[in-house]
Design goal:
- By secondary structure, this protein is α/β, with parallel strands linked by helices.
- It has helices at about 15-25, 85-95; strands at about 5-10, 30-35, 40-50, 50-60, 75-80, 95-100, 105-110, 115-120.
- The strands form two sheets. It has a four-stranded mixed sheet. The chain has a four-stranded mixed sheet with strand order 5-8-7-6, with helices on one face.
- Strand 3 (about 40-50) and strand 4 (about 50-60) form a beta hairpin.
- The termini are far apart.
């Protein structure tokens, strides 16, 4: 048996803010969504044409306390074709957490504090 990664789930407080952030910061847009008719929760999936891997945002109506999505070092990683342009955009957005110039990578955080490692294509 072999497994294939298909998505990573992030619980979000503000679905619209998360969708806007991932579209602007990483060029990922909604591929599909699912949830009950009563709207008590929804799962929204985002991706782009570069990879078949999706990020799933889970939103729950009435949630007021932030989620603890991961520990300090748990993160997703994204490769970008122009690391300098990406870094400039993310600095403008105010979402750069830290940069490791010796490795040529940096980390950003989404509206819910999810860590995202940004790496250059090699």
């Amino acid at each position: 048996m072999k497994g294939r990664l298909v998505h990573h789930c992030i619980h979000v407080m503000d679905l619209d803010a998360s969708l806007a952030f991932y579209e602007k910061a990483l060029g990922m847009t909604e591929t599909h969504r699912m949830g009950p008719e009563d709207g008590s929760w929804v799962n929204v999936y985002v991706a782009n044409e570069l990879a078949p891997f999706e990020i799933e945002f889970t939103w729950n109506r009435g949630r007021t306390e932030p989620y603890e999505n991961a520990g300090k070092d748990v993160h997703i990683a994204v490769r970008v074709d122009d690391i300098d342009a990406a870094f400039a955009l993310h600095q403008e957005m105010g979402c750069v957490l830290r940069r490791n110039e010796s490795l040529g990578i940096y980390f950003i955080t989404d509206p819910d504090g999810q860590l995202i490692e940004v790496m250059p294509e090699r």
